[in-house]
Amino acid sequence: MRTFLATLAQHQTLIEQLKSDAEQITQAGQVIANCLAQNGKILFCGNGGSAADCQHIAAELVVRYEQHRKALAAIAMTTDTSILTAHSNDYDFSSVFSRQIEALGQTNDVLCAISTSGHSKNIISAATTAKAQGLTVVALTGGDGGELKHHADIAIIVPSSITARIQEAHILIGHWWCGYIEDLLTERSCFNPHSTSSVE
Ligand SMILES: O=C(CO)[C@@H](O)[C@H](O)[C@H](O)[C@H](O)COP(=O)(O)O
Ligand SMILES: [Zn+2]
């Protein structure tokens, strides 16, 4: 029988291991911030719990994380039930995200592809389509990074085989990115009164 303390210990071990990825996680945060500063947008894709992470992080960027500041361009490609059902029903679930990238992706955008296994077909297809269209691909994955790591410009691999622990690490990284991006864009005066929206 699992105990809460044993699960907590797994989580803490993993968080400790993530220290060695700090530089790469920071670099990915810079890539996302640069994209937003240059009027690009962040497209997110993931399945199940990772789909929830997509809309969670996109909401922090569009609305706010810690600062009242201008809106940042982010889209969770996991939320439009008409697109998701029409495409899966008429074509194939494996291309449900790549189709949206074909519609929305531009060369100065970033795809943030989230897959704990790194093996989900629709996520790999999204990454390959994004690369082909000139987007930068940041992958949040786990295990050994699966096939996804081969199709990403930056692949952050949480070294665990437990889906839940990987997801917990992913949202920690996603939250950290949101704060770091707000800090970086503030430092570059991207949120000064002349570049902000009505929420100021
Ligand atoms: O949240 C969980 C498990 O914690 C599940 O919903 C999980 O996200 C789903 O099984 C996903 O389909 C797994 O996909 P992936 O992370 O391997 O790409
Ligand atoms: Zn979950």
UniProtKB/TrEMBL annotation:
The keyword Zinc applies. Its cofactor is Zn(2+). Pfam families: SIS_2. Its EC number is 5.3.1.28. Binds 1 zinc ion per subunit. Zn(2+) binds at H56, E60, Q167, H175. Coiled coil: none annotated. Its main location: cytoplasm. GO terms for molecular function: carbohydrate derivative binding; D-sedoheptulose 7-phosphate isomerase activity; zinc ion binding. Substrate binds at N47, G48, G49, E60, N89, D90, S115, T116, S117, S120, Q167. Keywords: Carbohydrate metabolism, Cytoplasm, Isomerase, Metal-binding, Zinc. It catalyses: 2 D-sedoheptulose 7-phosphate = D-glycero-alpha-D-manno-heptose 7-phosphate + D-glycero-beta-D-manno-heptose 7-phosphate. It is found in: Cytoplasm. Homotetramer. Catalyzes the isomerization of sedoheptulose 7-phosphate in D-glycero-D-manno-heptose 7-phosphate. The reaction produces a racemic mixture of D-glycero-alpha-D-manno-heptose 7-phosphate and D-glycero-beta-D-manno-heptose 7-phosphate. Belongs to the SIS family. GmhA subfamily. This is Phosphoheptose isomerase. The lineage of its organism: Bacteria, Pseudomonadati, Pseudomonadota, Gammaproteobacteria, Methylococcales.
